[in-house]
Amino acid sequence: MMLSLTDPELVSALVVADIAQIQHVTHSHWPYIPAMRDLDLRHIARRSDADPLLTDAIHDDTLRGFLLHNLSVEGGQASWRINLAVLEANMETLVDFQIDLPEVSFEGRAFFPYDGASPYVPPETHPRIRVYFPDAEIDALPGSGHWLHAEQPDVFVARIEAWLSTAGGS
Fold first, then answer.
1. pTM of the entire predicted model
2. 21-26 contacts: CB < 8 A, separation 24 or more?
3. CA 20 to 30 Å from 23, out of 1, 5, 34, 129?
């Protein structure tokens, strides 16, 4: 979103999945990073070894499986593909949105799919989305959860493909 607002010539169209440009005082996913970071990888020979070790911190089976896709096991050595230390150190910045932007907007096409019960795109954010993204299409995908692409991948991909096709695939 920031790139489209600060350097719009670099962005032809924008898809923003289940998030809006608001400050997120708390982020429900914050505890997952320490749980992943603290996992003793020395005894992990496959992802399935890590799964039960994360159940106390990450109760949802689907979510845990999704996060475990970031765990690589090669040659008997497990490692995280993502830099958990950097994510943890910068989480406050990552979940925040710079609200003191000058009056700018992205005039290109923007698509905001979100879960209908999402705390990240509540109805009161829709007018604010349209201030920054006047050509935004805001679409609820009920029952998807926050990770639309992982929890309902077929619905998510079909909806994005339909949106893209309305503008010739921009």
1. 0.68
2. 21/97, 21/99, 21/125, 21/128, 21/129, 21/132, 22/97, 22/99, 22/125, 22/128, 23/96, 23/97, 23/99, 24/95, 24/96, 24/97, 24/120
3. 34
